Every structure is written in C-alpha cells, then in structure tokens.
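Predict structure. Chain length: 435.
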Amino acid sequence: MLDGLKNISKVQELQKRILFSFLLLIVYRVGSHVPTPGIDTVALAAFFEQAKGSLLGLFDMFAGGALSKLSVFALGIMPYISASIILQLLTVAIPHLEKLSKEGEAGRRKITQYTRYGTVFLSIIQGFGIAVGLENMAGPTGASIVIQPGWGFRLITVITLTAGTAFIMWLGEQITERGIGNGISLIIFAGIVVRGPEAILNTFRLLSTGEMGIFFIVLLIVLMVGVVAAIVFVESAQRRIPIQYAKRVVGNKMYGGQSTHLPLKVNTAGVIPPIFASSIIMFPATIANFIPHPWMKTVADILMPGNFGYELLFVGFIGFFCYFYTAVTFNPVEVADNIKKYGGYIPGIRPGKKTAEYIDDVLTKITLSGAIYVSAVCVLPSILISNFNVPFYFGGTALLIVVGVALDTAGQIETHLLTRQYEGFMKKGQIARRR
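Prediction complete.
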C-alpha cells in the first residue's frame, strides 16, 4: 500500500480530490471557532472543564471542541449520524424503507433525503435543548453562561446550530462525491485528531516539570504503537467461509465450478456499540449532575468513567449492541438464499436452512471476539488515566474511529491508483492493437 501511495503525484485527478477534501476540512475547522451570539465564552469554557467525563464531554469530542466553545458547528455531525442509524434500523422494521433500500440508486437517494430531514429535525431538538440548558447553567464562579436569556437567545441558537449542522452535512457529502474518502467520517476524524498537538504539549510539560519520567513515556509510546497495530489487525481480520459453485452447462459451454469465500468481519458492528453504550450510560449521569440531591449525586459518581460500576455497564452494553447491530445489518437467511440461488454451497453443509444456521453460528462466535476486542480498547483510556495518570485520552471510540477512517481512506486512495493504472494498461493495449 505504501508503494502505491507514493504514486499519488503521478495522478493529477487524485491530487485534485485530495486537495479538495483538505480544503473543505479546513473550512470545517475554521467554522468550529466562530462563536454563537449571546454566550459568555469564559464561563462556558470553565463549565466544560468540569464536564469532560459527562455526555457533554463525549459530544464535544466528536464535535472537535466546537461544543465547548458553542460555535456555529457546536452540534457537529452527531445529528446526521443519529439520523442515519435510526433510518438504518427502521429499514428492517418498515417495509416501505426496506423496499427503497433494494431499489438501487433511486432508493438510496430517497433514503438519503429522509436522513437529511431527520438530521434537521434532530438538530432543532438538540439545539433547543442546549439553549434551554445553557440558560440554567453557570460557571464555577457563579457567572451566567448566557448573557441575555430568553426566547430571542433560544431562537437564534436553534437557527445557528441547525444551519451549522446542515452545512457540515453538505461539506461531508461534497467530500464523498468530489473528494476522497467518506466525508462524514473524515469530518469526525478531523475533529478528533486536532486535539493531538495539545496532548503532546501537555506530555512535554509534565516531562519538563518532572511529573513524568522519560522511561514511562517510552513505555507509553510502545504501548500506543502496539494498540494501534492491534486495532489495524483486528479491523482488517476476516473469517472466510469457503463457497463452491457447481458447474452448469448452458448450450455448448460449461460455466461455474469456481471456488470463492464469504468474508465475515470480526468487528462487523464497527464503532456503533461504544457510541450507543456511552450515550446510554452518560445520559442519566449528566442529568443527575443537575439535580441537587445526595442520592442523585451518588448515582452520578457511580456512572462516571473510571468507576467499576461504569466500566461494568459499559462493557455489558458494548456486548449487547455488538450482537444487536450485527443482527440488524447482516441476515444469514438472506445470504444463504442468495448462495443457493446462484448454485453455490458450503462444502459439507446442506444448502438452505442448514447453511443459514452454519453462517449464524460462525457469526455469533466471531462477534463475541469482536465485542471483547472493542470492550478492551474502550476501557483502556480509563485504566491509563486513573491508574497511570496519563495526561491525555488514548483509546476508546476516538481511536477506533481514527484508525478505521485512516484505513478506509488509504484503501480508497489505493483503489483510485489501481484504477488509473488499469486504465493506462488498457490504453497501451489499444494503441498496440491499432499499430
């Protein structure tokens, strides 16, 4: 892959796509620093300094720090992701959406349109909730975060945040269509990695003051490289089920008879399980922080990252959503029917029901491995921060997203390079034939 990436300079179209994607990501980062009117930014920053482990802190991570500044992009791309997931789940439950998903490009465009409507609707609800919540919050010194509370502030905030999310959604679609890689994923990627320099500076500061030793930093770097290598390995890992196609005679010719395989990813659900699990657990913890009652304070302390109760629930929800999302997105019965329809079979397994049961059994086993892997990566940051006083957040959902997006983008670049090389071979062949 690295040898192929060196040839980017030889493909002018690919260079334009990469430059276009890079420029739109710069636009996104600039917009993340444009503040929403009516906010005391100093009081807001002080409040978010105390909310790093809450649901607001989680959303702020995906928004690239835009929520803690309450910029025009404060909602980030999360409403679009939520709408996409909801539409994907409803596709299984609603026959009309299931029919659209099978109608090819026209059906996909219709579902994309529904996703956009859902994004705007969720942005309005979340924007209003943020506006009302900010009016009831204050910084550590007691200073009000909102300068002039009221319906004027709420209306401006809702319009600003909704327009910001719609613009980010448009940026992502433009990157996907005219750039390189998945635009939405690259926007999340940019929001996460932009915090890397701050973490490096904090590490050097602790090293200079003597709070961290050079030996510990070296061990930490080795651990980070090992974790990234493990994620790359598992995200690329597949369980390949062999499939044999029977020979068929059509007229005077014989077709088929080839062997292939059905690839099943170890981590089929991707980063969806930790996102859902974090949201479900942190929501009551965040609400409990706003209720001045000793019992609610105890609940909030138990559900904070780093506590045993939180980690136990987190791992349990990750396992549940790994199986749930895999069951929603992968149908063994449909796969078995398609294999049978085209004259294929798994050696030693009867076509039809037995094949579906076999695929389901294999998928269940590898999903367990995937759930253990995702849980280990997501619990890693809490272990490093609470037990080893690591000054930055390493691991978890953010690392899974960063590595996954990097692999996907590099794969798409390689695909473009291979396509151009293939077209070059074809043109050379045509010229040779003409000669």
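Summary: The two ends are 35 Å apart (CA to CA).
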